[in-house]
Design brief:
UDP-N-acetylmuramoyl-L-alanine:D-glutamate ligase; 18 helices; Rossmann fold; 39% helix; 17% strand; 2 domains; elongated; 500 residues
Protein backbone atom coordinates (compact mmCIF):
# COMPACT_ATOMS: atom_id res chain seq x y z
CA UNK A 1 0.00 0.00 0.00
CA UNK A 2 1.46 3.34 -1.07
CA UNK A 3 0.53 6.25 1.17
CA UNK A 4 0.54 9.86 0.03
CA UNK A 5 1.29 12.90 2.19
CA UNK A 6 0.53 16.59 2.15
CA UNK A 7 3.37 19.05 2.58
CA UNK A 8 2.16 19.84 6.11
CA UNK A 9 2.20 16.15 7.05
CA UNK A 10 5.72 15.76 5.70
CA UNK A 11 6.96 18.79 7.66
CA UNK A 12 5.38 17.41 10.83
CA UNK A 13 7.07 14.03 10.36
CA UNK A 14 10.47 15.66 9.84
CA UNK A 15 10.06 17.99 12.81
CA UNK A 16 8.94 15.16 15.09
CA UNK A 17 12.05 13.16 14.20
CA UNK A 18 14.32 16.17 14.78
CA UNK A 19 12.71 17.16 18.09
CA UNK A 20 12.92 13.56 19.30
CA UNK A 21 16.66 13.60 18.61
CA UNK A 22 16.48 10.75 16.10
CA UNK A 23 18.08 12.80 13.34
CA UNK A 24 19.26 16.34 12.66
CA UNK A 25 17.99 18.58 9.90
CA UNK A 26 21.49 18.63 8.43
CA UNK A 27 21.59 14.83 8.30
CA UNK A 28 18.18 14.72 6.59
CA UNK A 29 19.52 17.13 3.99
CA UNK A 30 22.55 14.90 3.40
CA UNK A 31 20.32 11.84 3.04
CA UNK A 32 18.08 13.65 0.59
CA UNK A 33 21.04 14.72 -1.53
CA UNK A 34 22.42 11.18 -1.56
CA UNK A 35 18.98 9.89 -2.55
CA UNK A 36 18.86 12.19 -5.58
CA UNK A 37 22.37 11.30 -6.72
CA UNK A 38 21.67 7.58 -6.30
CA UNK A 39 18.51 7.93 -8.39
CA UNK A 40 20.54 9.46 -11.22
CA UNK A 41 22.38 6.18 -11.67
CA UNK A 42 25.98 5.44 -12.54
CA UNK A 43 26.30 7.03 -15.96
CA UNK A 44 29.38 8.92 -17.08
CA UNK A 45 29.74 12.36 -15.48
CA UNK A 46 29.15 15.47 -17.53
CA UNK A 47 28.10 19.07 -16.96
CA UNK A 48 25.53 19.83 -14.26
CA UNK A 49 23.75 23.09 -13.51
CA UNK A 50 22.27 23.17 -10.00
CA UNK A 51 19.67 25.88 -9.39
CA UNK A 52 19.22 26.50 -5.67
CA UNK A 53 16.52 28.38 -3.82
CA UNK A 54 16.97 30.20 -0.51
CA UNK A 55 15.38 27.49 1.67
CA UNK A 56 15.90 23.85 2.51
CA UNK A 57 15.23 22.73 -1.07
CA UNK A 58 18.20 24.86 -2.07
CA UNK A 59 20.20 23.25 0.75
CA UNK A 60 19.45 19.86 -0.79
CA UNK A 61 20.76 21.33 -4.05
CA UNK A 62 24.11 22.27 -2.51
CA UNK A 63 24.49 18.74 -1.13
CA UNK A 64 23.74 17.36 -4.61
CA UNK A 65 26.25 19.77 -6.18
CA UNK A 66 28.98 18.60 -3.79
CA UNK A 67 28.23 14.91 -4.30
CA UNK A 68 28.14 15.26 -8.09
CA UNK A 69 31.48 17.07 -8.04
CA UNK A 70 32.93 14.22 -5.99
CA UNK A 71 31.83 11.89 -8.80
CA UNK A 72 33.67 13.92 -11.41
CA UNK A 73 30.89 16.14 -12.69
CA UNK A 74 31.60 19.72 -13.77
CA UNK A 75 29.12 21.53 -11.54
CA UNK A 76 27.84 25.09 -11.69
CA UNK A 77 25.68 26.20 -8.75
CA UNK A 78 23.46 29.26 -8.95
CA UNK A 79 21.51 30.72 -6.04
CA UNK A 80 18.27 32.66 -6.10
CA UNK A 81 18.78 35.60 -3.76
CA UNK A 82 21.57 36.65 -1.43
CA UNK A 83 23.91 33.96 -0.13
CA UNK A 84 24.22 35.83 3.18
CA UNK A 85 20.47 35.45 3.71
CA UNK A 86 20.58 31.64 3.56
CA UNK A 87 20.20 30.25 7.06
CA UNK A 88 19.90 27.09 9.11
CA UNK A 89 20.73 23.72 7.61
CA UNK A 90 20.80 25.18 4.11
CA UNK A 91 23.57 27.58 5.17
CA UNK A 92 25.60 24.66 6.47
CA UNK A 93 25.10 22.78 3.18
CA UNK A 94 26.24 25.88 1.28
CA UNK A 95 29.32 26.18 3.51
CA UNK A 96 30.28 22.53 2.88
CA UNK A 97 29.91 23.09 -0.87
CA UNK A 98 32.26 26.07 -0.66
CA UNK A 99 34.71 24.17 1.55
CA UNK A 100 34.83 21.48 -1.13
CA UNK A 101 35.93 24.12 -3.64
CA UNK A 102 32.55 24.92 -5.13
CA UNK A 103 31.45 28.41 -6.07
CA UNK A 104 28.02 30.03 -6.14
CA UNK A 105 26.82 32.48 -8.77
CA UNK A 106 23.69 34.60 -8.59
CA UNK A 107 20.75 33.05 -10.41
CA UNK A 108 19.76 35.24 -13.34
CA UNK A 109 18.76 34.74 -16.95
CA UNK A 110 22.03 36.08 -18.36
CA UNK A 111 24.09 33.68 -16.26
CA UNK A 112 21.88 30.74 -17.24
CA UNK A 113 22.13 31.56 -20.92
CA UNK A 114 25.92 31.76 -20.68
CA UNK A 115 26.22 28.20 -19.36
CA UNK A 116 27.55 25.59 -21.78
CA UNK A 117 24.71 23.15 -22.49
CA UNK A 118 24.30 21.09 -19.31
CA UNK A 119 23.80 17.34 -19.44
CA UNK A 120 21.85 17.70 -16.20
CA UNK A 121 19.75 20.45 -14.69
CA UNK A 122 18.99 20.12 -10.98
CA UNK A 123 15.83 21.98 -9.99
CA UNK A 124 16.32 22.72 -6.28
CA UNK A 125 14.61 26.11 -6.25
CA UNK A 126 11.38 25.44 -4.35
CA UNK A 127 10.11 22.22 -2.83
CA UNK A 128 6.89 21.02 -1.28
CA UNK A 129 6.21 24.06 0.87
CA UNK A 130 5.50 26.54 -1.93
CA UNK A 131 2.57 28.77 -0.96
CA UNK A 132 2.62 31.50 -3.61
CA UNK A 133 3.01 31.67 -7.39
CA UNK A 134 6.49 31.76 -8.88
CA UNK A 135 7.24 35.21 -10.21
CA UNK A 136 10.17 37.29 -11.37
CA UNK A 137 13.60 35.68 -11.48
CA UNK A 138 12.33 32.33 -10.18
CA UNK A 139 9.67 31.99 -12.86
CA UNK A 140 12.12 33.14 -15.53
CA UNK A 141 14.70 30.59 -14.37
CA UNK A 142 12.22 27.69 -14.48
CA UNK A 143 11.00 28.63 -17.95
CA UNK A 144 14.56 29.08 -19.27
CA UNK A 145 15.72 25.77 -17.80
CA UNK A 146 12.85 23.95 -19.52
CA UNK A 147 13.43 25.76 -22.82
CA UNK A 148 17.16 24.97 -22.88
CA UNK A 149 16.56 21.31 -22.03
CA UNK A 150 13.98 21.03 -24.80
CA UNK A 151 16.25 22.76 -27.30
CA UNK A 152 19.65 21.34 -26.39
CA UNK A 153 18.96 18.01 -24.76
CA UNK A 154 20.06 16.92 -21.32
CA UNK A 155 17.60 16.19 -18.56
CA UNK A 156 16.00 17.86 -15.57
CA UNK A 157 15.81 16.28 -12.13
CA UNK A 158 13.41 17.94 -9.70
CA UNK A 159 14.33 17.77 -6.02
CA UNK A 160 11.22 16.66 -4.09
CA UNK A 161 8.85 18.28 -6.60
CA UNK A 162 9.13 20.49 -9.68
CA UNK A 163 9.46 24.15 -8.71
CA UNK A 164 6.12 25.90 -9.01
CA UNK A 165 4.07 22.72 -8.60
CA UNK A 166 1.76 22.62 -5.59
CA UNK A 167 2.63 19.41 -3.79
CA UNK A 168 -0.88 18.97 -2.39
CA UNK A 169 -2.87 19.48 -5.61
CA UNK A 170 -0.52 18.83 -8.53
CA UNK A 171 -1.43 22.25 -9.95
CA UNK A 172 1.16 24.72 -11.14
CA UNK A 173 1.71 28.05 -9.38
CA UNK A 174 3.92 29.35 -12.16
CA UNK A 175 5.47 28.20 -15.44
CA UNK A 176 4.71 24.57 -16.22
CA UNK A 177 7.68 22.25 -16.40
CA UNK A 178 8.06 18.56 -17.11
CA UNK A 179 11.04 17.12 -15.25
CA UNK A 180 12.57 13.96 -16.63
CA UNK A 181 12.93 12.67 -13.08
CA UNK A 182 11.49 13.74 -9.73
CA UNK A 183 13.08 12.41 -6.56
CA UNK A 184 10.88 12.78 -3.50
CA UNK A 185 11.66 11.75 0.06
CA UNK A 186 10.11 9.33 2.59
CA UNK A 187 6.69 9.25 0.89
CA UNK A 188 5.24 10.53 -2.36
CA UNK A 189 3.08 13.62 -2.05
CA UNK A 190 -0.47 13.94 -3.30
CA UNK A 191 0.67 16.38 -5.99
CA UNK A 192 2.93 13.77 -7.54
CA UNK A 193 -0.18 11.89 -8.67
CA UNK A 194 -2.84 14.57 -9.11
CA UNK A 195 -3.59 16.88 -12.06
CA UNK A 196 -0.35 17.98 -13.79
CA UNK A 197 1.98 16.55 -11.17
CA UNK A 198 2.43 13.12 -12.74
CA UNK A 199 5.07 14.05 -15.31
CA UNK A 200 8.31 12.32 -16.15
CA UNK A 201 9.43 9.61 -13.74
CA UNK A 202 9.07 9.50 -9.95
CA UNK A 203 11.47 7.94 -7.44
CA UNK A 204 10.83 8.05 -3.69
CA UNK A 205 14.06 7.91 -1.70
CA UNK A 206 14.19 6.50 1.81
CA UNK A 207 15.73 9.06 4.18
CA UNK A 208 15.36 6.99 7.33
CA UNK A 209 12.20 8.50 8.80
CA UNK A 210 9.85 6.30 10.79
CA UNK A 211 6.31 5.67 9.60
CA UNK A 212 3.91 7.47 11.93
CA UNK A 213 0.61 6.50 10.29
CA UNK A 214 0.07 9.86 8.62
CA UNK A 215 -1.54 9.77 5.18
CA UNK A 216 -3.71 12.15 3.23
CA UNK A 217 -4.70 9.40 0.85
CA UNK A 218 -3.35 6.17 -0.54
CA UNK A 219 -3.06 4.55 -3.90
CA UNK A 220 -5.40 1.73 -4.77
CA UNK A 221 -3.76 -1.65 -5.14
CA UNK A 222 -4.34 -5.39 -5.46
CA UNK A 223 -4.85 -5.58 -1.69
CA UNK A 224 -8.26 -3.97 -2.29
CA UNK A 225 -9.50 -6.99 -4.27
CA UNK A 226 -11.60 -9.39 -2.16
CA UNK A 227 -11.12 -13.13 -2.34
CA UNK A 228 -13.99 -15.21 -3.70
CA UNK A 229 -14.83 -18.32 -1.70
CA UNK A 230 -16.94 -21.30 -2.76
CA UNK A 231 -20.64 -21.67 -2.20
CA UNK A 232 -23.93 -21.18 -4.01
CA UNK A 233 -24.25 -18.53 -6.71
CA UNK A 234 -26.51 -16.46 -4.47
CA UNK A 235 -23.70 -16.38 -1.90
CA UNK A 236 -21.89 -14.08 -4.33
CA UNK A 237 -24.74 -11.67 -4.84
CA UNK A 238 -27.13 -10.70 -7.60
CA UNK A 239 -26.68 -7.49 -9.59
CA UNK A 240 -29.59 -5.81 -11.35
CA UNK A 241 -28.73 -3.49 -14.25
CA UNK A 242 -31.71 -1.43 -15.49
CA UNK A 243 -31.34 -0.73 -19.21
CA UNK A 244 -32.67 1.80 -21.65
CA UNK A 245 -34.79 1.81 -24.80
CA UNK A 246 -34.10 -0.11 -28.04
CA UNK A 247 -30.86 0.91 -29.69
CA UNK A 248 -29.24 1.98 -26.42
CA UNK A 249 -28.60 -1.38 -24.79
CA UNK A 250 -24.87 -1.68 -25.37
CA UNK A 251 -23.85 0.34 -22.32
CA UNK A 252 -26.02 -1.69 -19.95
CA UNK A 253 -24.75 -4.93 -21.46
CA UNK A 254 -21.15 -3.79 -20.89
CA UNK A 255 -21.92 -2.98 -17.26
CA UNK A 256 -23.65 -6.33 -16.80
CA UNK A 257 -20.72 -8.22 -18.32
CA UNK A 258 -18.31 -6.39 -16.02
CA UNK A 259 -20.38 -7.28 -12.96
CA UNK A 260 -20.49 -10.94 -13.96
CA UNK A 261 -16.78 -11.20 -14.73
CA UNK A 262 -15.77 -9.62 -11.42
CA UNK A 263 -17.52 -12.38 -9.54
CA UNK A 264 -21.19 -11.56 -8.96
CA UNK A 265 -23.11 -14.81 -8.69
CA UNK A 266 -25.93 -13.63 -10.94
CA UNK A 267 -26.56 -10.59 -13.10
CA UNK A 268 -29.89 -9.53 -14.56
CA UNK A 269 -30.41 -6.83 -17.16
CA UNK A 270 -33.90 -5.32 -16.85
CA UNK A 271 -35.04 -3.25 -19.81
CA UNK A 272 -38.20 -1.81 -21.38
CA UNK A 273 -40.31 -4.54 -23.01
CA UNK A 274 -39.56 -3.16 -26.48
CA UNK A 275 -35.81 -3.73 -25.90
CA UNK A 276 -36.07 -7.32 -24.66
CA UNK A 277 -35.56 -8.93 -28.08
CA UNK A 278 -32.52 -6.79 -28.87
CA UNK A 279 -30.84 -7.66 -25.58
CA UNK A 280 -31.84 -11.32 -25.73
CA UNK A 281 -29.92 -11.65 -28.98
CA UNK A 282 -26.73 -10.49 -27.24
CA UNK A 283 -26.94 -12.11 -23.79
CA UNK A 284 -26.34 -15.61 -22.53
CA UNK A 285 -25.00 -15.80 -18.97
CA UNK A 286 -26.67 -12.48 -18.12
CA UNK A 287 -30.37 -12.94 -17.41
CA UNK A 288 -33.07 -10.67 -18.80
CA UNK A 289 -36.30 -9.20 -17.44
CA UNK A 290 -38.77 -6.62 -18.74
CA UNK A 291 -38.80 -3.34 -16.80
CA UNK A 292 -41.49 -0.94 -17.99
CA UNK A 293 -41.43 1.48 -15.05
CA UNK A 294 -40.50 2.19 -11.42
CA UNK A 295 -43.39 0.12 -10.11
CA UNK A 296 -41.97 -2.91 -11.92
CA UNK A 297 -38.56 -2.19 -10.39
CA UNK A 298 -40.06 -2.11 -6.91
CA UNK A 299 -41.68 -5.47 -7.62
CA UNK A 300 -38.37 -6.95 -8.79
CA UNK A 301 -36.63 -5.63 -5.68
CA UNK A 302 -39.06 -7.57 -3.50
CA UNK A 303 -36.55 -10.38 -4.14
CA UNK A 304 -34.13 -9.80 -1.27
CA UNK A 305 -31.49 -11.85 -3.05
CA UNK A 306 -30.81 -8.87 -5.35
CA UNK A 307 -27.92 -7.22 -3.51
CA UNK A 308 -26.77 -4.38 -5.76
CA UNK A 309 -27.93 -2.23 -8.67
CA UNK A 310 -26.07 -0.44 -11.41
CA UNK A 311 -28.05 2.44 -12.89
CA UNK A 312 -27.10 4.85 -15.64
CA UNK A 313 -25.36 3.15 -18.56
CA UNK A 314 -27.65 3.70 -21.58
CA UNK A 315 -30.61 4.36 -19.27
CA UNK A 316 -31.71 7.68 -20.79
CA UNK A 317 -32.02 11.07 -19.09
CA UNK A 318 -35.78 11.51 -18.82
CA UNK A 319 -38.43 11.08 -16.15
CA UNK A 320 -38.25 7.27 -16.33
CA UNK A 321 -34.62 7.35 -15.20
CA UNK A 322 -35.38 9.69 -12.32
CA UNK A 323 -38.17 7.45 -11.04
CA UNK A 324 -36.01 4.32 -11.40
CA UNK A 325 -33.17 5.97 -9.48
CA UNK A 326 -35.58 7.04 -6.74
CA UNK A 327 -36.93 3.50 -6.43
CA UNK A 328 -33.44 1.99 -6.35
CA UNK A 329 -32.21 4.41 -3.69
CA UNK A 330 -35.38 3.90 -1.67
CA UNK A 331 -34.64 0.17 -1.49
CA UNK A 332 -31.51 0.82 0.56
CA UNK A 333 -29.52 -1.66 -1.60
CA UNK A 334 -26.03 -1.01 -2.83
CA UNK A 335 -26.31 1.29 -5.83
CA UNK A 336 -23.83 2.50 -8.41
CA UNK A 337 -25.10 5.65 -10.12
CA UNK A 338 -23.27 6.44 -13.34
CA UNK A 339 -23.73 8.37 -16.58
CA UNK A 340 -27.43 8.95 -17.32
CA UNK A 341 -28.43 8.33 -13.70
CA UNK A 342 -26.40 11.45 -12.85
CA UNK A 343 -27.19 13.51 -15.95
CA UNK A 344 -30.93 13.04 -15.42
CA UNK A 345 -30.60 15.23 -12.33
CA UNK A 346 -28.53 18.09 -13.78
CA UNK A 347 -31.35 20.56 -13.17
CA UNK A 348 -32.12 19.21 -9.72
CA UNK A 349 -28.93 17.88 -8.14
CA UNK A 350 -30.28 18.49 -4.65
CA UNK A 351 -33.08 15.98 -5.36
CA UNK A 352 -30.53 13.27 -6.07
CA UNK A 353 -28.14 14.19 -3.25
CA UNK A 354 -30.93 14.23 -0.68
CA UNK A 355 -31.74 10.60 -1.53
CA UNK A 356 -28.26 9.06 -1.65
CA UNK A 357 -27.06 6.96 1.28
CA UNK A 358 -23.84 5.27 2.49
CA UNK A 359 -24.41 2.20 0.30
CA UNK A 360 -24.17 4.30 -2.90
CA UNK A 361 -21.29 5.06 -5.22
CA UNK A 362 -21.50 8.02 -7.59
CA UNK A 363 -19.08 7.78 -10.54
CA UNK A 364 -19.05 11.16 -12.32
CA UNK A 365 -16.53 12.35 -14.87
CA UNK A 366 -15.43 15.98 -14.62
CA UNK A 367 -18.42 17.36 -16.53
CA UNK A 368 -20.96 15.43 -14.50
CA UNK A 369 -19.20 16.38 -11.29
CA UNK A 370 -19.36 20.07 -12.24
CA UNK A 371 -23.12 19.80 -12.81
CA UNK A 372 -23.76 18.01 -9.53
CA UNK A 373 -21.30 20.02 -7.41
CA UNK A 374 -20.76 23.32 -9.26
CA UNK A 375 -19.29 25.16 -6.28
CA UNK A 376 -16.74 22.40 -5.64
CA UNK A 377 -15.72 22.11 -9.28
CA UNK A 378 -15.38 25.84 -9.98
CA UNK A 379 -12.08 26.33 -8.07
CA UNK A 380 -10.54 23.49 -10.09
CA UNK A 381 -11.11 25.45 -13.31
CA UNK A 382 -9.59 28.70 -12.00
CA UNK A 383 -5.82 29.30 -11.93
CA UNK A 384 -4.65 28.80 -8.35
CA UNK A 385 -3.41 31.92 -6.59
CA UNK A 386 -1.98 30.36 -3.43
CA UNK A 387 -0.82 27.03 -2.16
CA UNK A 388 -1.92 24.59 -1.03
CA UNK A 389 -4.30 24.90 -3.98
CA UNK A 390 -7.77 23.35 -4.10
CA UNK A 391 -7.37 19.84 -5.46
CA UNK A 392 -9.43 17.04 -6.96
CA UNK A 393 -8.87 15.27 -3.65
CA UNK A 394 -10.38 18.21 -1.72
CA UNK A 395 -13.32 18.45 -4.12
CA UNK A 396 -14.12 14.73 -4.03
CA UNK A 397 -13.92 14.57 -0.24
CA UNK A 398 -16.28 17.53 0.04
CA UNK A 399 -18.68 15.97 -2.48
CA UNK A 400 -18.73 12.67 -0.57
CA UNK A 401 -19.55 14.48 2.67
CA UNK A 402 -22.35 16.40 0.99
CA UNK A 403 -23.84 13.34 -0.73
CA UNK A 404 -23.38 11.06 2.26
CA UNK A 405 -21.93 8.36 0.01
CA UNK A 406 -18.79 7.32 -1.83
CA UNK A 407 -17.86 9.52 -4.78
CA UNK A 408 -15.49 8.34 -7.51
CA UNK A 409 -14.30 11.24 -9.67
CA UNK A 410 -13.05 9.69 -12.90
CA UNK A 411 -9.90 10.64 -14.77
CA UNK A 412 -6.29 9.50 -15.17
CA UNK A 413 -6.04 10.59 -11.52
CA UNK A 414 -9.27 9.01 -10.31
CA UNK A 415 -10.12 10.06 -6.74
CA UNK A 416 -12.34 7.95 -4.48
CA UNK A 417 -13.64 9.36 -1.20
CA UNK A 418 -16.24 8.42 1.38
CA UNK A 419 -18.26 10.64 3.74
CA UNK A 420 -15.79 10.07 6.60
CA UNK A 421 -12.94 11.57 4.59
CA UNK A 422 -11.16 8.32 3.70
CA UNK A 423 -9.65 8.78 0.25
CA UNK A 424 -7.73 6.82 -2.34
CA UNK A 425 -6.24 7.62 -5.71
CA UNK A 426 -6.33 5.25 -8.63
CA UNK A 427 -3.64 6.93 -10.67
CA UNK A 428 -3.16 5.65 -14.21
CA UNK A 429 0.03 7.66 -14.56
CA UNK A 430 3.79 7.13 -14.87
CA UNK A 431 4.39 3.45 -15.74
CA UNK A 432 0.69 2.67 -15.17
CA UNK A 433 -0.58 5.13 -17.80
CA UNK A 434 -3.27 3.67 -20.08
CA UNK A 435 -4.26 6.31 -22.65
CA UNK A 436 -6.09 3.63 -24.64
CA UNK A 437 -8.60 3.38 -21.77
CA UNK A 438 -10.17 6.60 -23.09
CA UNK A 439 -12.66 4.69 -25.24
CA UNK A 440 -16.45 4.63 -25.43
CA UNK A 441 -18.04 2.24 -22.96
CA UNK A 442 -15.06 1.90 -20.62
CA UNK A 443 -16.88 3.81 -17.89
CA UNK A 444 -19.90 1.52 -18.22
CA UNK A 445 -17.67 -1.48 -17.50
CA UNK A 446 -16.21 0.31 -14.46
CA UNK A 447 -19.71 0.90 -13.08
CA UNK A 448 -20.48 -2.80 -13.54
CA UNK A 449 -17.28 -3.86 -11.80
CA UNK A 450 -18.11 -1.75 -8.76
CA UNK A 451 -21.69 -3.07 -8.65
CA UNK A 452 -20.46 -6.66 -8.94
CA UNK A 453 -18.07 -6.18 -6.03
CA UNK A 454 -20.80 -4.53 -3.93
CA UNK A 455 -23.12 -7.45 -4.67
CA UNK A 456 -20.47 -9.79 -3.29
CA UNK A 457 -20.50 -7.91 0.01
CA UNK A 458 -17.83 -5.27 -0.45
CA UNK A 459 -18.58 -1.94 1.19
CA UNK A 460 -19.07 0.97 -1.16
CA UNK A 461 -15.66 2.55 -0.70
CA UNK A 462 -13.72 -0.69 -1.01
CA UNK A 463 -15.76 -1.77 -4.04
CA UNK A 464 -14.99 1.54 -5.73
CA UNK A 465 -11.28 1.23 -4.95
CA UNK A 466 -11.10 -2.36 -6.15
CA UNK A 467 -13.18 -1.72 -9.25
CA UNK A 468 -11.04 1.25 -10.26
CA UNK A 469 -7.82 -0.72 -9.80
CA UNK A 470 -9.11 -3.72 -11.77
CA UNK A 471 -10.35 -1.40 -14.53
CA UNK A 472 -6.84 -0.06 -15.14
CA UNK A 473 -5.21 -3.45 -14.63
CA UNK A 474 -7.50 -4.97 -17.27
CA UNK A 475 -6.65 -2.19 -19.73
CA UNK A 476 -2.94 -2.72 -19.15
CA UNK A 477 -3.35 -6.47 -19.50
CA UNK A 478 -4.94 -6.06 -22.93
CA UNK A 479 -2.80 -3.16 -24.19
CA UNK A 480 -3.20 -0.70 -27.02
CA UNK A 481 -6.12 -1.24 -29.35
CA UNK A 482 -8.45 -1.89 -26.44
CA UNK A 483 -12.19 -1.42 -26.83
CA UNK A 484 -14.65 -1.57 -23.94
CA UNK A 485 -15.75 -5.13 -24.73
CA UNK A 486 -12.19 -6.31 -24.06
CA UNK A 487 -12.13 -5.13 -20.45
CA UNK A 488 -14.30 -7.85 -18.85
CA UNK A 489 -12.50 -10.52 -20.87
CA UNK A 490 -9.12 -9.40 -19.51
CA UNK A 491 -10.23 -9.87 -15.89
CA UNK A 492 -9.82 -13.66 -15.51
CA UNK A 493 -6.07 -13.55 -16.12
CA UNK A 494 -5.67 -10.76 -13.58
CA UNK A 495 -7.77 -12.53 -10.96
CA UNK A 496 -5.85 -15.78 -11.51
CA UNK A 497 -2.56 -13.96 -11.01
CA UNK A 498 -3.87 -12.44 -7.77
CA UNK A 499 -5.15 -15.87 -6.70
CA UNK A 500 -8.57 -14.49 -5.81
Amino acid sequence: MIELLTSAQMRAIEQAAILAGRVSGEELMERAGRGVVAALGDGAPGRAAVLCGPGNNGGDGFVIARLLAERGWQVTAQLLGDAEAVGGDAARALARWRQAGGTVAPLDAAGMRALPAPDLWVDALFGTGLSRPLEGAAAEAVALMAARRDREGGRIVAVDIASGLCSDSGRFLGPEITPDLTVSFHRAKCGHYLADGARGRLVVADIGLAHDGSAAARLTGPEDIPAKSGGHKYDHGHVLVPGGPPGYGGAARLAARGALRVGAGLVTLACPPAAVAENAARLDAVMLRPLPDAAALEAILADVRITALCLGPGLGVGARTRTLVAAALGSGRGCVLDADALTAFIDMPETLLSATHPHCVLTPHDGEFARLFPDLAAPLREPPKTGPAWSRLDATRAAARRAGCTVLLKGPDTVIADPEGNAALNAAVYASAVPWLATAGAGDVLAGLIAGLMARGCGAHRAARAGAWLHVAAARQFGAGLIAEDLPEALPAILRELDV
